[in-house]
Amino acid sequence: MDSAVFLIEFGAVVLALGLLGRVAVRMRFSAIPLYLLAGLLFGHGGIVPLAGSEDFIEVGAEIGVVLLLLMLGLEYTAGDLVGHLKTHAPAGGVDFVLNALPGAAAALLLGWGPVAAVVLAGVTWVSSSGVIAKVLGDLGRLGNRETPAILSVLVLEDLAMALYLPILTALLAGTGWAVGGLTLAIALTAVGTVLLIAVRYGRVISRFISSDDPEKLLLVVLGLTLLVAGFAQKVQVSAAVGAFLVGIALSGEVAEHTHHLLMPLRDLFAAVFFVFFGLNTDPETIPPVLLPALALAVLTAMTKIATGYWAARRTGIGTRGRWRAGGALVARGEFSIVIAGLATASGIEPALGPLATAYVLLLVVLGPVTARFTEPVAQRVIEWRKQRAAEPVVIDELLAHEAVQAAQD
Amino acid sequence: MTAPRMRTTPLPGIGVQYEITTRRHDTLSVIAHRDGTRTFNVHHDDDPDSCGLSMRLTAAEAMSLTDALLPDHNNPNLLHTSDYGLIAERVSVTGGSYWNGRVLGDTRMRTATGASIVAVMRRAHAIPSPGPDFRLRGGDAVIVVGTREGVDAAHGILERK
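Predict the joint structure of the above. Result:
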């Protein structure tokens, strides 16, 4: 590797990302689609081939996934997760049925076989916590009553990933049922053990790692995470899950500090990861899969809206809040790309990567739009139907009555 | 008076939400973000699930708001020694005050009123026994000790615009 060429190339890529990120901020949406597009432009079949920094970007992408998952784990405490699992399991189940199954069905329809079906199920299943949290903040809806319902779905998805990713890695490795089952048993045991340890001894672990000096803390946490991720990869559990579990095991003050320290690192490497995914996708492969991607995006946008509606109804939210919750959940993002990235690396279906790229590009842009407009549109439709049917809907009547009451108070 | 009921809802990945419904059935909530910022929400009447207003406050802004909300803020009395005829009060120096940027010596406080300035509260800390060349700033709260008349006169001097 010629270091001058490498520095020039990598510097140019990172600089381009920074400039794109500024555009994204100005246009008020997530930078993820722009990073993916940038990746498409560089590299294979793109306008600027990157020969000197390709290897480093690949390694950087690995680290990006590990950091993404570590930070996600830091957001939760084990207690949170266990409590959520108890109360919101039905919402998680509905979410899985409505959103994972269409992906699987699409892969089977395209004739890609069962493993690709499991991959695509994951891609369409998981909403993007990052994009959604940001959109809710931008729309001033963090305080809304439907927000906990939205977040509960996201938490369950993240937790489900801890089981799904090991299954997927086992399937992609093409091991037989016996080895696959063993892998799964190892993964389940690992997840269970970590949750148990984190609930019982989270404080002890955090105290062991805790350090007043940010530099030491950074090195210790980063080293530990990479080490655990590496071992997890070795036993076929997937590096991402290992990192996620480290994040969960850390709690309290250490989690806070680590969060602050690793934020910039995460941002850098996560951006590199999205670029890498784009790099590995030849732009010419996208047009043929655009139609299925679009169909899948529209279908799974609707199923997510239904999921949100249902989850919000379960927690006793009114009609408008239910539509808002549905619209908010549509965005897919980093996780779908992580899953597709695992699949493309193992080289199963060549059209899978382009399809996932197109799909995420569509939904990461569409997600904020549905978050904003699902409720007003649904309200319009309901109003219009009411006028046609001239049959008052009881619940809406009640709400209207309450509103009048409140206005009079 | 009973304390109002505060509902606490964890928002995983965001923070914690504290919600209060007032006696007049208005609902407000504060989200404590993990980075120290706060979101202050007032809920709609016509759609109780959504916010009519949602403001993101920095940690410092949230502190100032909290300060303004404290019930004893408008009761400047800090010291109950009326038996001895001495009182201590807090006098705020506003940004538009005449004394913003002027030194303490210029107030000629002790000469004019017989009251003493024992400390100046600035942001989160107190400066005890400030000297005559201490420069006042908007936002300071001056702690004055003296007789009722003296402290009232001190108010008159310090609240000069």
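The longest helix of chain A spans residues 352-389.
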